[in-house]
Design goal:
Shape: globular
Largest sheet: 6 strands, mixed
Strand content: 25-35%
Bound molecules: ribulose-5-phosphate
Amino acid sequence: MNQEEMKKAVAEAALDYVEAGTVIGIGTGTTANYFIDALAGIKHKIEGTVASSEASAERLRSHGIEVLDLNMVNEVSVYVDGADEATKHLHLIKGGGGALTREKIVAAASRKFVCIADESKLVDILGQFPLPIEVIPMARSYVARELVKLGGEPVLREGFITDNGNIILDVHGLQIMEPTKLEAQLNNIAGVVTNGIFAIRPADVLLLGTETGVKTLT
Ligand code: 5RP
């Protein structure tokens, strides 16, 4: 299997976690897109979806899948999304597509978080992938200086504005040994909306696409 086939295989495997008659949380990115396409085949079985980005909402609607406002929903049964890095402890880095804040909100509001990724995303220690941080525009320089004090090298994602109207700093050079601690510490910097470490609310299941098939890590 090549990388695209692995992404498609994990996306299809995630259909097993879809509960009939419930609202499904939908992630963002190429792997989540395969999940949206697969979900279209069973759209009549679910109540609707909550999307983590405008791009995913648009793709869902193009398949005739209902997209609901999270504020109008009592419970999201499962959230399915990709990742930029994942550990065997199911801690993640997300935000390569810039949708990290809405992704974190939908993940937090969901009973179960199923992460879908090809095996290239599995790492021993998070941080090789530059850590995305969503920042209120007026705080850009202040937050960047604070990140340098923590040993990171922040780089502005040029020409990119999030769905929430903010900027992204991609932080290089971090070796994330204590993901829950760093996640909380970064979120405490004034001007940070959220950061791409998903450890305080990690995934509950990681479906990993490998050359020999889909592996399930819990
Ligand atoms: C978007 C994300 C994505 O889940 C992450 O970037 C992985 O994307 P892909 O499935 O395209 O590799 O966090 O903000």
